[in-house]
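Notes to self after the Tuesday call (sharing in case useful).
The group wants a holo model before anyone commits to mutagenesis around the pocket. I volunteered. Ligand is D-glutamic acid. Logging inputs and output together so the record is complete.
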Amino acid sequence: MMQKGKIGVFDSGFGGLTVLRAIIGELPNYPFIYFGDNARAPYGNKSFDLIYDYTLEGVKFLFNQGCELVILACNTASAKALRTIQQKDLPRIAPTKRVLGVIRPSTEEIASFTRSGYVGILGTEGTVNSGSYLMELSKISPNLTVFQQACPLWVPLIEERQYETMAGKMIIASDLEQLFSKNKEIDTVLLACTHYPIIKSMIEQTVGYRAKIIEQGPLVAAKLKEYLRRHPEIENSLGLSGEIAFFTTEREDYFNEHASEIYGTMIKAQQIQLS
Ligand code: DGL
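Result:
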């Protein structure tokens, strides 16, 4: 019997685990494969070409593992590689498979959280400079006033587990103050990088009563559920084993230790090499 398909979740490193956790909470019965390209993270400060090449390699790996649908649980990859993969690569390499990102699901929902209409976006340099959030929000919610802040050191701090050091705390606080110095009326801040929910409590402590901090995992999970309802051809191609497998380009012991801490249960990953 032909094996049924899986859902792949791709990130540059640990960040996508925050999305996977939310997706599995919403859709626990499908089989999942998580792939973190930890050895080559962070992506945020890299060139467009490199991010595109790395992301496409990750997507192809997940397709070869039997994924019918891949979620780019990485804003940087969604901003820089998603459109080209959807429009140029998919029709050529896997016309029946799908790749989705995290920017659209977040921009569709963010307006429902703000009262002032002033929204802050925190992301990597790649995401912020791509202008993807500004572009999407100007179409979906043109009444919002949006302020972006790049936090180029946050992903390295999280990948290297350095965010609780004195320097780490100072960097995080200083980037947050820079965002609020742009406008005092910001009452909603979107964590537009899937690594950032890992330090959500630190962010909330620093921001205090000024704004609500919104993470993307639950938004992406709810939209994925809706997507599968609207696309029975994809839904029917998926298995129902509820299995989860983890792959990383880093050393397994390093990944397992930190991923288990972030994910909340023991993770046993397999190391792979891409190129
Ligand atoms: N989690 C990725 C994102 O959402 C981090 C990108 C990076 O590796 O810099 O943007």
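Two things stood out.
The CA atoms of residues 8 and 70 lie 4 Å apart.
The chain has a mean pLDDT of 97.
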